[in-house]
Amino acid sequence: MKGELLIMTGIALIFMGFLLVFIGTLVSSLGGDAEVEGGGVIMIGPIPIVFGTSRGATIAMILAVLLMALWIIGILLARRG
Question: Do 26 and 40 have their domain in common?
Answer without folding.
Answer: no
